[in-house]
Specification:
Elements: E1 9-14, H1 24-35, H2 39-48, E2 51-52, E3 57-58, H3 59-71, E4 76-80, E5 91-93, E6 96-99, E7 102-106, E8 112-117, E9 121-129, E10 134-135, H4 143-154, H5 164-167, E11 170-171, E12 176-183, E13 188-193, H6 210-224, E14 229-230, H7 232-238, E15 247-248, H8 251-273
Parallel strand pairs: 5-13, 9-14, 9-15
Antiparallel strand pairs: 1-2, 1-3, 1-4, 6-7, 7-8, 9-12, 10-11, 12-13
Helix pairs in contact: 1-2, 1-3
């Protein structure tokens, strides 16, 4: 007897931000009705939109959510789980060059290991990764203090909790720049970290400061990859806009943002190619993103 095929599952992608006061109540009610989610949890997710829904959904749930979001004029689409794109593992590279013919990546021993013609660069996603502040170590405890601690240990008395961190001066750390370069055919994601990159190819523009080299590298990358989609964070970064527009809490959050923006670029391209479908509303969800 043949084993029954599992029901197909789908990932829902919401592309619009949702106004908390005007749109959120209706969107919240829709998601609660379809998924059984608690209203508070639904509102927490809505506040993070645009985003990818956290768990896969069955076909009926996905169809109902797509139809409901279409009626609410919220742009969204669904992907079959098996076809949902993934940028991981992102390849962190340490030696690369922007050359007239394309983007060259070198290996640990300086050997060329990858070559990306500029027309194959699909997306450039840059941002700053927030770093936790450092604390300078205070002076070590004086001998009397160390002796007192030993005596306490011998007498089985609990040591006095140290307040060394409280007394240590806080040293703010600057956010570190990162850029994710996505190539197509085949799809590969490369990551360049500001402080871990060899910028030797810059030649006369080379500085002893990574903080100065990274913007030059990013500007060079953007100027040469004419067909690449630039994320809003990238445009904000090269435009010296408010850092809030391009600062992320972690490297993974930048990767998640990059994936969502890549999906948005495809959605926008397809919508422009079929203007009679301003939203990814489909009657046959099995045909949604099945290529």
């Amino acid at each position: 007897m043949a084993t029954p095929k599992p029901d197909p599952r789908y990932r829902l992608v919401v592309f619009d931000s949702i106004d908390i006061e005007e749109e959120a109540p209706a969107v919240r009610d829709l998601f609660c009705k379809v998924t059984g989610l608690h209203p508070t949890d639904a509102m927490l997710w809505i506040a993070r939109a645009p985003a990818v829904w956290s768990t896969p959904l069955n076909a009926a749930q996905t169809r109902e959510l797509l139809d409901g979001l279409y009626e609410l004029k919220v742009a969204a689409e669904a992907w079959a789980v098996d076809n949902f794109p993934d940028l991981n593992p992102v390849r962190t590279i340490h030696d690369a060059a922007c050359l007239p013919e394309g983007f060259r990546v070198k290996g640990l021993h300086g050997e060329p290991i990858h070559w990306v013609p500029w027309n194959k660069v699909e997306m450039i996603c840059a941002g700053k990764i927030a770093a936790e502040d450092e604390y300078q170590a205070p002076s070590p405890p004086r001998w009397p203090s160390a002796i007192a601690t030993g005596i306490r240990a011998l007498t089985l008395r609990k040591p006095i909790p140290s307040d060394r961190r409280a007394r240590a001066p806080r040293v703010p750390r600057e956010p570190v720049g990162e850029v994710i370069v996505v190539r197509k055919d085949p799809r590969i994601a490369f990551r360049v970290i500001e402080t871990q990159m060899n910028y030797a190819y810059l030649g006369e523009k080379l500085s002893s400061s990574a903080a100065k080299n990274f913007p030059n590298f990013l500007a060079d990358l953007v100027a040469r990859a004419d067909d690449a989609y630039l994320t809003p964070s990238t445009r904000a970064m090269i435009g010296h806009d408010d850092p809030v527009e391009f600062t992320f809490p972690t490297s993974q959050s930048l990767v998640d943002y990059a994936l969502h923006r890549l999906l948005w670029s495809w959605y926008k391209r397809d919508s422009e190619a079929a203007r009679d479908r301003p939203s990814r509303r489909v009657d046959d969800i099995e045909e949604t993103r099945m290529e």
